[in-house]
Design goal:
It is built from ten helices and four strands, in the order βαβααββααααααα. The protein has about 230 residues and is an alpha+beta fold. It has a domain of about 120 residues: Up-down Bundle (Glutathione S-transferase Yfyf (Class Pi), Chain A, domain 2). Strand 3 and strand 4 form a beta hairpin. The longest helix has 27 residues. The chain is globular. The protein starts with a strand and ends in a 23-residue tail after the last helix. Keywords: Transferase. GO terms for molecular function: glutathione transferase activity. It is an enzyme of class 2 (transferase).
Length: about 230
């Protein structure tokens, strides 16, 4: 029976971190939010007990599993997607990726998530400058050091952390093309990892399909020209 993945239609967002693992592992799933729309998602979120706070969440066996790191940890356990000895370490890295994703969102919404970007542009400009110069290299440097000389973050094959780093780099390239072009040379191991993940058969097929949703200015990674600089 396929998994039911629920996330907002039209957005890669946090749901994409889950999609990439399902695609790479060849696990059957239905992208229910995309298939049925936002109203169906909101209705499904109110079903049952122990409800998710927000999408993405995975429905399976009558329960809803929410939060990206939690979903990916559960999939790793169930489908043996990483060595047992490395799973706590990988979950730690995944939680750090979630921290960075939250900071990415706060760049264009530093004052209030319920307000539009154009209502907080001066504050966003300040947040973007600080993120570009300080937070982006701090996070990427940490992941570069964690990867070291290995081809993958753990074991001899990809894990959910590797696919998440792929999506993180893809999103940052979309959001900050000038900044990323100027700093990518400092993180050769991460960029090589990005290329390896892109070549994983399930990922390559997904990227060539119409299931891959494009980055846009309604999602987490948004490109505003005025927020990017070298």
């Amino acid at each position: 029976m396929p998994y039911d993945l629920w996330y907002w239609p039209g957005l890669p967002g946090r749901g994409e971190f889950v999609r990439l693992v399902l695609e790479a592992a060849g696990l059957p799933y239905r992208d229910r939010g995309v298939e049925e729309g936002a109203e169906a998602l909101l209705a499904d979120m109110r079903k049952g007990s122990r409800l998710p706070f927000a999408p993405p969440y995975l429905r399976t066996g009558g329960r809803a599993i929410a939060q990206v790191a939690n979903i990916l940890h559960w999939l790793t356990e169930r489908h043996d997607l990483a060595p047992v000895s490395d799973r706590v370490w990988l979950n730690q890295l995944q939680l750090t990726i979630s921290d960075m994703v939250a900071e990415v969102h706060n760049v264009h919404h530093p004052v209030a998530t319920g307000a539009y970007y154009h209502e907080q542009k001066p504050e966003a400009a300040r947040a973007a400058a600080q993120f570009r110069q300080e937070r982006l290299p701090k996070f990427l440097g940490y992941f570069e050091d964690a990867l070291g000389d290995g081809e993958w973050m753990a074991g001899g094959r990809w894990s959910p952390v590797d696919t998440s780093l792929f999506q993180l780099i893809a999103g940052l390239r979309y959001m900050f093309p000038r900044r990323m072009a100027s700093v990518e040379g400092d993180y050769p191991a991460l960029i090589a990892l990005y290329d390896r993940v892109k070549a994983v058969p399930g990922i390559a097929a997904y990227l060539d399909s119409d299931r891959r949703q494009a980055f846009n200015e309604d999602g987490i990674f948004r490109h505003y020209l005025e927020l990017d600089a070298e």
